[in-house]
């Protein structure tokens, strides 16, 4: 069965973006980038990967899920299909978008993920945002967090608004880089019972 992986950059204080969607404080240079670009090449926007000559095999991810605000980041720059090498599903209640390999869904995200998990393929990447991650928290199989050595103070939380309900994830691996970025991977702990 396919896994849903929430792979995202996060500040030390738990934000994936600033209050207006800012993410330019996350480190885009440093010794962590080669590892990330190699291992997670499928998560690089298609045009960037092409410009950097980074091959995207779709071996880790073949599908990406986004909320509208995450998707809309590229629209002012004319980017209507940021990850066209992947199947892109954008969840929105009332907006429309068109682009290569792009689907807009008004369906319940959890139901969509459960259907996707039954299909044959690579893992499913939850790109963001925090509200969508909160909605899909019960479906997330793995977390891969790129913790950046910055404090935001306020912004979009890693899991948006979510009721208090502790869930256990076990650490799989953690790599600390000289840049200060720490890449940590967690797998959902088996449920007791």
TrEMBL record:
Pfam families: RibD_C. InterPro entries: DHFR-like_dom_sf, RibDG_C, Riboflavin_Biosynth_HTPR. Gene3D superfamilies: Dihydrofolate Reductase, subunit A. It comes from the Bacteria. Residues 4-183 form the Bacterial bifunctional deaminase-reductase C-terminal domain. PANTHER family: 2,5-DIAMINO-6-RIBOSYLAMINO-4(3H)-PYRIMIDINONE 5'-PHOSPHATE REDUCTASE, DIHYDROFOLATE REDUCTASE FAMILY PROTEIN (AFU_ORTHOLOGUE AFUA_8G06820). This is Dihydrofolate reductase family protein. It comes from Herbiconiux aconitum.
